Amino acid sequence: MSIWKKPITLEACNQTSENTAVTHLGIEFVEIGDDYLVGRVPVDERTRQPFGLLHGGVSVVLAETLGSIGAFYASPEGHRGVGLDINANHLRAATSGWVTGTARPVHIGRTTQVWAIEMVNEAGELTCVSRITMAMLAPR
């Protein structure tokens, strides 16, 4: 059974992010399932830190992007979410290719949502795990 309460497409997710930090960093949405959302970020000159590794903050941007967009589409029409808290554990460095994140809801409530995001490198190795808590705001 699908968690999405608003119509969701890859085109809509990618279009919503145009002219933002998301597109500046090369993040793109690549898959939508009944209870998950997948996006990826390139490891390149835009996203590496000075030592050649994917910047940890970029992993957090990917996680927050996936969790925020997921929360938006998993909420009723007119509702929106804003981030309350996010954490990330960086487990393995990525130096090239793509890092792909999969966001799944842990809790979808009336006033809060919690999303878990797992990020992997092209070899499928876990690079980062993150969790975001969203405050859900009703229409004004």
Mean pLDDT: 97
N- and C-termini, Cα separation: 29 Å
Counting H and I runs of at least 4 residues, what is the number of helices? 3
Instruction: Report helical residue fraction.
Output: 10-25%
Broad structural category = alpha+beta
Kindly provide the radius of gyration, computed on alpha-carbon positions and rounded to a whole number of angstroms: 14 Å
Largest sheet: 6 strands, antiparallel
* H/E element order: HHEEHEEEE
Describe the 3D structure:
Helix content is 21%, strand content 39%. With 140 residues, it is α+β, with helices and mostly antiparallel strands. The longest helix is centred in the middle third of the chain and has 18 residues, at 56-73. It is globular and about 45 Å long.
Write the layout of secondary structure elements.
Blueprint: H1 10-16, H2 21-24, E1 28-32, E2 37-42, H3 56-73, E3 80-90, E4 98-108, E5 112-120, E6 126-137
Antiparallel strand pairs: 1-2, 2-4, 3-6, 4-5, 5-6
Q: In brief, what are we looking at here?
A:
It is built from three helices and six strands, in the order H-H-E-E-H-E-E-E-E. It is globular and about 45 Å long.
List keywords for this structure.
140 residues; alpha+beta; 3 helices; 21% helix
